[in-house]
Design a protein that fits this description.
Helix content is 22%, strand content 23%. The chain is an alpha/beta fold and 405 residues long. It has two domains: 11-118, Immunoglobulin-like; 145-402, Rossmann fold (3-Layer(aba) Sandwich). α4 links the parallel β11 (192-197) and β12 (219-225). The protein is globular and about 65 Å long. The protein starts with 10 loop residues before the first helix and ends with a helix. The relative contact order is 0.09.
């Protein structure tokens, strides 16, 4: 640690050491002309970062972008690497977000719909040069449902190592993966989307067994992939922005969501913060699996300073946290049928009382959550095996067919 009074941490230092001071800027780049060069979208702050680039996103063509930046005030600029020398040069500047020209963001905030149109030729940079040399080997990111593309759950980006990266270093996850919704097949308006949301340290790969065994003639599986070390309200806001972008593209009419563990808390927050009206899609079914509705006792013991700092999400998981309590300040909308699935095959040597090996039974069965459940089922499974259980799968398929409608 640099203790010099002259030490001025850069954007990457802040993102790594103080993720609570960071937020997400996102939008879409539009062009009225064909773009044959890679686009570089950058966030620059003259005040906070001494004209350094806080984050950048390389796009092969116009489309959605995401920038993970420290709190501050930013210009969002676009360059086209016309000569493909991996340098953003002054005559390659093709546009900027101008409404407003400077975007202010606070820690934990998500600001979406920062869309703007670029030109097909370079313009003179607005007031100062940008010194950005792009790396020769940038991670190749997966194309999302918003891009109109499909993926395989066997891709390395869905491996357990990236789930761990997302928990412990969210900034590296966002750099390598982004936050997106992915699909296994092209959008089909005749099929109902079923959105799967993983838990802490998880990835879409966790859902392979269940997603592979639902009726694919009736349902299309989608997967929300996010860094699980961020504050849960931030992730909830990201889910809203991503689903809204997908809806604007496809205009789907109905949606089901199922979530594992911590993912259930994110979805409940997402539902609380948004109105589903006649002008948008209708969320009909929400299934939670092994969700700690009352929090996780061990989260109270997580260190908050020193050499080892716990993920921001662990603070939200602590029983009685502001986030946990906020989940039940509103009732679920009447059109959303909620089903609660829990496991009880745990190890009492680790947790006091009945549990699933990770989450206490009393938390999974928090009365506030139970009171709103149309159905509540328990299984002799642990926290992980719930996602690979034939009994759980059978019950899930039955709920899709009868409750979802």
């Amino acid at each position: 640690m640099n203790l010099s009074p002259f030490y001025n941490p850069g954007p990457d230092d802040i993102k790594q050491a103080q993720p609570e001071r960071c937020g997400v800027l996102m939008g879409k780049i539009v062009s009225k002309y064909p773009v044959k060069s890679p686009l570089v979208i950058i966030a620059v702050s003259k005040q906070i970062t001494n004209k350094k680039v806080a984050d950048y996103n390389i796009l092969p063509e116009p489309g959605p972008y995401m920038l993970y930046v420290p709190e501050g005030r930013y210009n969002i600029l676009a360059f086209a690497d016309f000569n493909k020398n991996l340098i953003c040069e002054q005559n390659e500047f093709v546009g900027q977000h101008e409404n407003p020209g400077i975007v202010s963001i606070a820690g934990g905030q998500v600001i979406g719909e920062l869309d703007f149109v670029i030109s097909n030729t370079g313009k003179k940079l607005f007031d100062f040069p940008i010194d950005l040399k792009m790396p020769l080997h940038k991670h190749k990111k997966l194309n999302s449902l918003e891009d109109g593309e499909i993926v395989s759950l066997d891709d390395d980006m869905f491996s357990r190592k990236y789930g761990s990266v997302g928990l412990w270093t969210p900034s590296r996850f966002i750099e390598a993966v982004d936050v997106n919704i992915y699909a296994l097949e092209k959008f089909d308006k005749a099929k109902i989307p079923v959105l799967f949301v993983h838990g802490s340290g998880g990835t879409p790969k966790d859902w392979e067994f269940i997603a592979s065994n639902i009726d694919r003639t009736l349902y299309q599986p989608w997967f929300f992939y996010y860094p699980s070390g961020l504050h849960l309200k931030t992730v909830s806001d990201l889910l809203y922005e991503k689903l809204n972008a997908v809806y604007n593209k496809y205009k789907f009419k109905k949606l089901y969501i199922t979530a594992h563990s911590m993912g259930g808390l994110i979805v409940r927050s997402f539902i609380n913060e948004n109105n589903f009206n006649k002008d948008s899609y209708c969320l009909k079914l929400f299934v939670s699996i092994s969700t700690p509705w009352g929090g996780v006792d061990r989260a109270k013991l997580a260190p908050t300073n020193g050499f080892f700092k716990s993920p921001l999400s662990w603070k939200d998981l602590s029983p009685g946290s502001k986030f946990i309590e906020s989940l039940f300040q509103k009732k679920l909308p009447p059109q959303v049928k909620f089903c609660l699935l829990f496991g009880y095959k745990g190890d009492k040597l680790i947790l006091k009382g009945a549990d699933d090996g990770t989450v206490a039974l009393k938390s999974q069965l928090d009365p506030r959550a139970q009171s709103e459940a149309a159905r509540c089922f328990g299984f002799n499974e642990n926290h992980v095996s719930m996602l690979f259980s034939k009994e759980v799968l059978g019950q899930f398929r039955e709920m899709l067919a009868t409750i979802g409608g």
